[in-house]
Amino acid sequence: MSLDSMLPVAPARVRALVLPIGQIKRDRFSSFVQRLNEEHVVHLRDISPDGRPNRNMFSPLAFPDGAMFYDLITYVPPPSHLALAPFELFREPLALIAIADGQELENVAFSKRQSANGYAPTMAERNIRTLYQELEELRDTYPKILTHQVLIFDYAPHTENTIPIPDGIQTIPPVENSKRTTMKTVMCDISSLLLAEMTALAKSFEGMTAIDSPGQAPTRPGLNGTSWTSDDTNPAARRNSQFAVSSVTRSASTSGAPDRNQARMSMPVPFKSLPFGSSSSTPSARPTTPVRSGLSHPPTTFDDIPSANGSSTDVTSPEPPASRPGSAGGMKSANQDKVSVQGFGPGGLNERWRNKGRGRVIILVGSLYLQAGRWTDALKELIEGATVAKSINDHLWHGKALELIIICLLLLGWAGVEFQVPTICLPTNDKTISSISKGLEFEEGDPNQPKHLRHLQNVLPELLERIVGLYSRISGEQLPPLPLSQSIIRFCSLLTSIHLCDGKLEKESLERIVLGKLSTKALTSSPRLTIAPPRTQIATLLFKAFPSSAPELLTTVDRAIILSGIATILGSLGFHRKKAMVVRELVSVLIGGLVEARTRGAAEVGIHPAAGLVALNAVNGHGNGAGGLELGEGDIEHGIDAFLGSLCKTYGVVNFDDGIRGSSDEFRQVSDTDEKVIARIQSQSSARQFGIRNVKLNILRACINFSEALPDFNGVLRFSSDLLRTAGSGVAPGPRREDAAPIITRDEQIRLLTNISKTAGLSQRLGLEHLSAEFWDEFLVRGITLDPLPPTRIPIPHSKTVLPGVTTARTSQDVNPFIYNPFMRTPDKAAVERTLVAGEAGTFRVTLQNPYEIDVDIESIKLDVEGADFESSITSTIVGPYRTQILKLTGTPKAAGSLKITGAIVKVRGCRERRFPIFPQPWAPDTQTKIKGIGLAALEQNKKLPFPGPPLKPDSIGLSVISAQPVVVIKSTSLFQSSVMILEGERQVFSVTLQNLSPTTPADLLLFSFQDSTQGPLQTALTSRDATPAELYEYELILARKQALKLRKIDDSKRYIAPGGTATFDFEILGKPGLTNGTIQVDYAHLGVPQSEISEQFHTRQVCLDLTITVNASVDLARMDVLPIQGEVPKPIWTRLGANGVEEEESSLSDEKHCLLLLDLRNAWPSDMQVCLKADDGIMIQEHILPGNTNRVIFPVQRVYIDDPHASIPALNPSRQQQFVVSSSKITPEIERGNREAFWYREKILEKLSGTWKTLSGPSREGSIELRGLRLAPRMIEAIKIDEVGIDISVEDPEAEDSSKEGNGYTIYTDEFAQIKVVVTNRTHEPIYPTLRLMPSLCHRPLNVALDFTRRFAWNGTLQQALPLIEAKSSTEVVMGVIPLCRGEFDISASVEETQLWTPTEEKEKEKEGEGEIGKEKEGVVRRERSDTEIMMDAVLGAKERRVWHSRRPCRVCVRDRA
Fold it and tell me: By CB distance 3.0 to 4.6 Å, which of 174, 207, 222, 1409 could disulfide with 227?
């Protein structure tokens, strides 16, 4: 059975006051009370009747089907409730049960007074005697209570020494030794004593001459409960323990009668609140809060109202306020309603007053029968009393009798006893009766419901309305607001129980009505039109109980009790918004009472009222506001929080999490994962679109005031943060600048933030570290980024294949510049930005947002990391109002691996330290079209549906942590300030010292790369589409073979720097034009394993040395020329010119093998220069050049033969070697052939020739001369090249043994035969078809005369003849006989012309004529068909044409006459 004081059958319950006695602890007292509550329903068949004949008026044998219902309370009812007796007899306690702890009997003495207890052999016996004495004191203190009983729980009697148990004391064994009927027997024994004593109470009522109504001036003092405890009329008869009321009550009642300083010596000394009280397991209606000043001593009778301004010395007679203006009670005099009644028989002064007294007595006796479980007897008495009251228009007692009759009928129906609805309960008009009969006929077909219950159900709504009308009737006697409102609430509770059971009064509904079983069916706002009584009718009746706003009519406690009862029924009916309105009023009422309680409590302990009850709570041990209402520790957690939480939920307040409603332990277990936070944001967004925002804010302000008045620290923190959260926009603003400002003023925001900070700080000082608020903005962290590391510490990822020696393309540290160098490339920014090194700190930028107009004080913030071990720095900051702010944090990974930064762990001042995910993208919920939603179900339904807004995507930063790496810096260099001056062609060597700063990690991989200012223009020129192949070759040659910087060859084992050590490396720099700066880049790493064992990837760091270079001119090539040699040059001439090393004969320096190279060399350096030119054949010439002078140097070089001077120009870049590159410029084949000839002959000359220089004064410098400035004209090429076909002409005398050759010619004689011998040599790789032409001419004659030699020279044959095929690399001779006819000098020249072009197919046809098929197959292997490449070559160089070769010098013949 529920202990709800608003149960419909509450008037049938017997109230029993349960008090602690002796030495007992709070939790054990609560557990003992709970054991009693389990047996609070006592059936009469189990009760033994009292044997005394004068005590059998309420004998249980008369109605064994009845039962007694106990209402066990642990507080003394306030006088405002006791003043309602005997009209509402159930408000007075009829039994007193004192509970003692049997385990404490032998621990400590309960009393130090030896004389009172006498001699006791044991401590337990002595304490039992003390308990008996205190029982006697309780009997003196509470004389109106009918029975007094002491229960010693967990009592284990001694088997050796039996302790006598006095009368009035009963022992109960521990739970493990108890039987199923132990507690039931105890309650039956108490009930037997109570039934016996109720006879005397009934007799006393029957002997009364007049009974006053509530609010009516008493005819005799002490009749209506004003002297419920012993008074001061007989001070000698009182004991000190009679002042112990305050020590056993739950709180200070409104009467003010108990003396707080007079507590029992056996109890702990209380301070403000009492040490004993019901816990959360025994909820009951109890006056918990001192009332306003006007209600501190409410009037109990109308006699007290006129004396409101007077003073009273009686502690049981509080000072009443002035009477309500305009009320009937307030307008009458004190003795207006007092009538002396001598008897009930005839002859009285007034028959009406006699009947009134008789009727009221009958109703009181019926009420006693009802409480005693004799429901049939009670029904008889109440019917009679109702009939009498109706006849004399005693409307209050008439209504009370009808109410008790309904309770009797309900209890009979619950017990299964058939009854008939009394006629007094039926309506009087025929129309209503006919409607009832129709209703009976309509319900006739339901076999599950008995007819008597159906009849009662039909008359019940109208009967309850009639009772409320009787109670509310304005007359000389008017019911006070408290009993009227509580009666209406009980009636509505009755109708609600029937409504929840589908409108049927049957077993299930009776169980709810009598035993208070809670319904598992939750009603929604959907209409229930077919169920009677309808909810609207119940709600209309219920709001008649709403208390008046006049403060003098009700105490704060009574007003709170009424409002809570109304709210409970509205919640059961599903009217949550109406319930929230009532709860809102309840909060306002409680705030007023709590404020006065704070002032009064502060004054009692002598502190300033502004300090509130914080100090009081600290003394009492309350840390969460329980002291404000003097509740147990569990009451504030499971009562107040749920109470205010339901209020906020009804209005759609945007709270932190719907699932969190409990204690502070639950707050520490809140999950802040990404999924939970997203669900929380979506739930809060749905709540923002529900309800009216201003109403929510007002509700939260009231909750804050209520929590402050308690004070409830947890509530203040919770509702203050909820108010900020509800007032906020709940969006993540983006570049569009969505309006994210809250709707409350800045002053209120500051006040709320200050409230949170102060409350949290105060709770910390009181030792309540777990109390904290929840931060109000889920989008606090808007972004986390990793700052780039310093350039010298950036770990750059590389593939394993880029290591030298791993692949064939990279066989050494010195890499071909045309091969891709991955160490020179710009590193991948994304990969670099997400790489950290173990043991080295990284800097992170955390973007925080604050859309509020207040400063957010962040006490601590650190990164939340998953994966590898990571240590984040902790810092604090203040985020300014309405802005995003960037904060820098450092973090150090401790081990290699992968890690993910998922958010930040932030501790805001006054708030719980929690994790915030990263929401970098702007987000705002979609504003839905307003659709009609009924009740809270609309909000719950929206939360179940998929969220309509844009998806929320929390961000994370994935980082990879590599193993510890060294840190290498450039310690020193041999260059002054990293700058150098150098001459063109000069090479200088300098050293660089590297130092490893890491104390534990060596650098076992060192790779060197170089950059200089000449590489950029060269690379740009290489990409030009207008560059010729010769220019591209020149660019590539300079880039590949004339590098400005390079590392001197060292052993790979020296590429190592120990931890903390140094290493020195030598570099070489070459001076060349355009070189202004250079960079030495060192890529280093710690691999830890051989390069061949590296996994897929490794990381390097870079350190760079920037050089400033100044290149000055040295020896420049100003001009050049190539001249053929005319005749033979004697050796002495070359010796005088400085030619050394010429060991050949004089004839070797002839025009057949050599030519002259003229070089103009200029000394551009202000110092004497010595130039040395060398050729590959040993010729060397030295020249001394003065500063600023230009000297011409003539140098003989060998002529050059090239097999294919028209071959394509090669490419040094491997990427250009894979394809046939055609010049992009549109030039003729003749020009293309000329360009290629110039390229190849120039390369041959440069291969044979080299030049160096050195200074003769000043600092010693030496270098090489840049000769690649040579450019060959066609004339120069003719002087240098050797023709493909050689023509050698000689003259022989057939008769002479040797031909006589004089100087440059031959000598023959006139009219004598001679032979001209012509040797034709094929120097090519292909055969030719030659045609030889001999051209004799006169020497030293003009051309027209020189060719006129027909009469001067005769020959045998023709001067032009076709020669046979000359094979490749072979020669042929042609001999012709001649006879000179006159003296003179003749020049014989010759030319060879190709008769036809030789092709491979023609040669194959000739071979076919003399060879077989096998030869054909072999030849087919050697030759191949014309390819596409040859076709392209023809397109570039033009089709092959027949060539002509001329002899370079004619053969001179001197003809003489023989002497």
Answer: 222
Which has the closest alpha carbon to 1380: 1329, 1453, 1289, 1331? Answer: 1453
Question: Torsion-angle region of residue 794: left (phi > 0), alpha (psi -120 to 50) or beta?
Answer: beta
User: Two tokens at 427?
Assistant: 């309506």
The low-confidence residues of the chain, meaning pLDDT below 50, are: 1-3, 114-117, 220-226, 231-349, 430-443, 445, 610-638, 659-668, 806-813, 1142-1147, 1220-1221, 1405, 1408-1427
Burial class, 526, CB count within 10 angstroms (exposed 0-12 / middle 13-18 / buried 19+)? exposed
Name the E strands within 133-190: 147-153, 169-171
DSSP 475-498: SSS---HHHHHHHHHHHHHHHHHH
* Distance in angstroms (rounded) separating the CA atoms of residues 649 and 571: 13
- Pinpoint the alpha helices (H) of 961-1064: 1015-1022, 1029-1041
Q: Are 654 and 741 in contact, with CB atoms under 8 Å apart?
A: no
Count other Cβ atoms within 10 Å, centred on residue 343: 10
Nearest to 708 by CA among 873, 556, 594, 843: 594
The rounded distance, in Å, linking the Cα atoms of 706 and 584 is 11
Q: Between the CA atoms of 648, 649, 655 and 661, what dihedral angle is there, to the nearest 10 degrees? A: 90
Tokens read off for 998: 């890491």
Q: How many other CB atoms are there within 10 angstroms of residue 501's CB atom?
A: 20
C-alpha 365/C-alpha 198 separation (Å) is 10
- Cα distances from 472 to residues 213, 483, 487, in angstroms, run 14, 11, 11
Q: What is the pLDDT of residues 619-672, one digit of tens each?
A: 334 434 333 334 443 344 446 777 777 778 777 788 777 544 444 444 446 788
Enter the tokens of residue 1319: 């040797």
Residue type, position 492, single letter:
C
- H or E segment at 34? helix 26-37
The alpha-helical segments, DSSP class H, found in 810-849 are 829-833
Q: Which residues contact 110 (CB under 8 A, 6 or more apart)?
A: 22, 23, 126, 127, 130, 131, 134, 266
Contacts of 1248 (CB under 8 A, 6+ apart): 1175, 1176, 1177, 1197, 1198, 1200
- pLDDT tens by residue, 349-381: 467 788 888 889 999 999 999 999 999 999 999
CA distance 118 to 978: 110
Distance CA 1173, CA 1186 (A): 17
Side-chain-side CA neighbours of 332 within 13 Å: the count stands at: 18
Q: How many CB atoms lie within 10 A of CB 916?
A: 24
Nearest to 30, CA basis, from 41, 40, 18: 18
Place of tokens 């007193």: 96
Per the structure block, which two tokens stand in for 286?
Answer: 């109890």
